[in-house]
Amino acid sequence: MKIALFQMSPAQCPTGMLDRVEAAMRDAAGKGADILVTPAFSPMYNNASSIEAHFSRDDWATRLTRSAISIGISLVAGVPEQDGDTHRTSALIINLTNPESPAIFRKAYLYDDADRTRFVGHGPYVVTADFDGIMTGFLMCDQIEFADNIRQLAQAGVDLIVVPTGLPQTPDQPFDAHHSVPIRAVENQIFMAYANHAHAEGIPSPQGSSCIVAPDGGILCATPRTGDALIYATIDPAAYVSSGPQKAFASEMTLPKHLH
User: Fold this and answer.
1) In CATH, which superfamily holds the domain spanning 2-252?
2) Backbone angles phi, psi at 128, to 5 degrees
3) Is residue 86 exposed (0-12), middle (13-18) or buried (19+ Cβ within 10 Å)?
4) Average pLDDT rounded to a whole number, residues 157-171
């Protein structure tokens, strides 16, 4: 499976952001990609008030689903979700094998107090999808910092974890893209696709540094911190069969039971 990852510069106009996602879908499909991954909050980075003003879940889901079908590409897009009076940080999952029934993955826990004043976390759970024979799991943003989240998906049998993110630039955050993602990949013998917004002036400013990583921890492709970028990689678990014993070991790892 060929995966495309779109690192995009943040903007305040939600319609313009969706236009850019659709343009990236066309470019990716034209280069033979089967699926496109975008960052968290793709329609409106750092503009939560636009949720009520411009989007309900049906609005953006309908538009992006129609685009995926007409262009011919599956999509995982980070989106702000309005569900009644509840706002969530979510990912829309459109699989071309059943595009009329998109799935939603909602972030389990929220990043900071600012997020908690605007959004509601879902709590931990697992969502998987089969894209062209590649079993795929989903996390969002800083969920990759916690090994148990990745291990849970690995034990569910995923080959790939897709991570829409919008982590801001802080002194410690580059550790995620440069170290946490490769470490989690090799620990669990899985591919990881980590899609962030490009660094730009603003508060908070995202860190960029999006990447796609192989089960051996190798960086298949990566973006710089700044600027829009559309990058590609081939997800082929058979190419990493030499790591089979390590994967079998990883599958046997379980959390210890608490002893009273």
Assistant:
1) Carbon-nitrogen hydrolase (3.60.110.10)
2) -130, 160
3) exposed
4) 85
